[in-house]
Structure formats: C-alpha cells, structure tokens
Amino acid sequence: MKCVVCRGPAVIDVRRANSNFCSDHFIRFCAEQVSRAIREFKMIEPADRVLVAVSGGKDSLAVWNMLHQAGYQVDGLYLGLGIEGYSDTSVAFARTFAQSRGLKLIEVNLPEEYGYDIPTGARAARRTPCSACGTSKRHLFDKAALEGSYEVLVTGHNLDDEAAVLFGNVLRWQTEYLARQMPVLPARPGFPKKVKPLIRLSERDTAAYCILMGIDYMVEECPMSSGNKHLGYKEALNAIELASPGTKSDFYSGFLRKASQLFRAAYFEGSQDPQPTEDLTHCIRCSAPSTSTLCAFCRLVDKAGGMVTVEQRGSSTASDTSSAQAVRITSRAERSARSTKTEVEAQT
Ligand code: Q46
Ligand code: ZN
Ligand code: ZN
Which of 196, 222, 300 to mutate to test ligand 1, by most ligand atoms within 8 A of the CB atom? Predict the structure, then answer.
C-alpha cells in the first residue's frame, strides 16, 4: 500500500477518497479537509477568537489541535458533567492536551457550580440523561462563549455524527430539523456563532489523526450513551459505507449542496438564518434568550440543582497509549462507530 502523494509506505486507506496516505500526507489531508470546510462555509475569520467545546475525546482534541496549528487563536472549554468513571478521566485528557501545548482550557463543573450531575439531575427532572445533558451543554457553551467575547464556538461533530443526524431526520421526515441542520449557525442576540469544522472527516479519520499526532484521548464512550438512537443510525450507515465507500459523504454533502436550502426556504422564507428569533423573550433569571419566562436551563436547575453534595473529585492522570509511530487502520473500523480507537492497531 503506497501513499498516493509521495509513493512512500502508506499507513491508512481512505476508501471514500480512493486514496492511501503516509503519516505526513494523511495529517495534511485532514488539515486540508478542515480548511476547506472553514472556507466553504465561512466558518472562521483569521482574527476571530475561537472557543472549542472539548470533551477529552478524539474529535474535540483533533479539531482543537488542527485549528491551533492553522494559526487560529483558540481556547478550550470543558464542561464537567459529574458522570462517575467518565468525567474524571475525560477532563484529565483535556488538561493534559492543553498543558502540553500551552493552551488555555476553561473548565465549568456542573455539580460544583449548579448542584447537579447528569445522572441524578436527569432523574430528578424526569428527563433522559442525554436530554438533560444537551440542555446543559447548549446553555453553558453559549454562556461561556458570550461571556468570554469569543466570535466563534466550535464543536467536534464529524461526518459520521452529521450523517447520522441527517439519516434520523430523513427517516422521520423531520423537516424543521432538516431546515436547521447546518454546519454553521450565525451569531444572533444571545447566541454565539457555532460551527462544525470536522464535517469532511470521519470518526476513523480523527482517531487516526490523534494517534499519528501523539494525542492521547478518552477512548471510552460516555456510559449514558447506550440506547442512543444515533448510534444505531451510525451502525446502519457504516454497513452501507462498507459495501459502497463514499456513500456517507455523498449523502451528507449532497444534502448540504442540493436539499438544505429547500427546507430552509420552506421554513424560514428564504432567510439565511435558520434560527428565527422573533418568538424569543429573555429568561427572567439568567437573561438568556428563551421562549418562556424561565429558560430551559434554569427550569432544569430548579428541578435538578442540589441533588448532589459537592465532593472533591480527584482527577486521574491521563493514561496509556499512543506513542505510536505508525498505524494501520483496519477495515473493521468502518463497522464500528463506537470504539474507533480499539480498531486502530498501533504498530510499535
Ligand atoms: S455526554 Fe451527555 Fe453525550 Fe453522555 S449524557 Fe448523553 S449527551 S452520551 S455526547
Ligand atoms: Zn506521502
Ligand atoms: Zn435562564
């Protein structure tokens, strides 16, 4: 297997691009895909101050590293969810990455600052953990970006994530969600600009990128994710992709090029802003934009806050792995959306 660029030994095949790459050219390929997405969708201007939402996983650390290497001013934001056996470890990966590159990591801790963790808070509020988590993340990411005067909030959603969401929206013809599914949401009063620079890279790409760059990341998925329907959609799309490489990317990029504006036109009468603000008022407690007197986050805090006693949580050290010099990515990686790193076999 030879690199399509330099004819040296390849370490990874990217079947959707019908290409094999050596380590250097794969890293350049990833950087090019990110810069293409940024250019095409006008995601980030050179002078923008950028905040990346960091989970300690491969996608958020990869995008943070790529943006930093591309010369953007980019800080990280970690939200501690208080999930036992997960949050302590994931924050250690985020801290280790930030320290190793001299980057700023802002930390917000739900149990300490708002009195609930996701499992107990969700139970108290009679919500699913991911629903309570989503409300908390949206509110606290927006708040941190606005309070820090960042121009852009970046998330690490990749091609697999976006294709799975699209698949779910199409299966149920959730046309309003289809109208809103964009890799860029413009800034508007009370909300920062939000962008997804990894839409041209797969999970397998970001895992390989991290290993080749020596970035240690949290491999384990959040324990609350089991039963998440998007994991099923990812598996279905991976099966299709295995039989017909490139389908996933065509599905998502074709939607952006050919269909998304039709849904937006139907819902928002030609407006480029897929998040109309006219129905919004302000939360009387936190003044965030809201459709009701109290915003969804403040209602959640009312029900869930005070559910945990704050205890000092020890932070484990970032562990193990990846001093890998070369990697071989097996085709099994295409079959699994859940444990990509276990599918990347390090050749030490
Ligand atoms: S962190 Fe939060 Fe995810 Fe865990 S509780 Fe669900 S939404 S699965 S990306
Ligand atoms: Zn090469
Ligand atoms: Zn509020």
Answer: 222
Region of residue 82 (left: phi > 0; alpha: psi -120 to 50; beta: else): left
CA of 114 to the centre of ligand 2 (A): 49
Q: What pLDDT was estimated at residue 280?
A: 84
Q: How far is ligand 3, taken at its centre, from the CA of residue 285, in Å?
A: 5
Query: What CA–CA distance (Å, rounded) separates 332 from 13?
Result: 12
Query: How far is it, in rounded angstroms, from Cα 278 to Cα 54?
Result: 31
CATH code of 209's domain: 3.40.50.620
In a domain, 135, yes or no: yes
Measured in whole angstroms, the distance separating CA 243 from the mean position of its chain's CA atoms is 26
What is the distance, to the nearest Å, from the Cα of residue 42 to the centroid of all Cα atoms in its chain?
18
Q: Strands, E, within 16-170: which ranges?
A: 19-21, 49-54, 73-80, 105-109, 152-154
Instruction: Name the residue range of residue 270's domain.
Output: 40-337
* pLDDT for res 247: 98
For residue 297, give the amino acid letter.
Answer: F
Which residues fall within 8 angstroms of residue 148, CB to CB, at 6 or more apart? 49, 51, 75, 106
Question: Is the CB of residue 103 less than 8 Å from the CB of residue 78?
Answer: no
Contacts by 93-96, CB closer than 8 A, 24 or more apart: 93/56, 93/57, 93/61, 93/216, 93/217, 93/218, 93/318, 94/54, 94/55, 94/56, 94/60, 94/61, 95/315, 95/318, 96/216, 96/317, 96/318
The DSSP secondary-structure symbol of 221 reads P
Q: Could you tell me the pTM of the whole model? A: 0.88
Q: Is the pLDDT of residue 248 over 70?
A: yes
Please report the sign of the dihedral spanned by the C-alpha atoms of residue 164, residue 289, residue 110, residue 184.
positive
Kindly state the tokens that stand for 328.
Answer: 């071989």
Residue 320 confidence (pLDDT) above 50:
no
21, part of any domain: no
Task: Specify the amino acid at residue 114.
Answer: Y
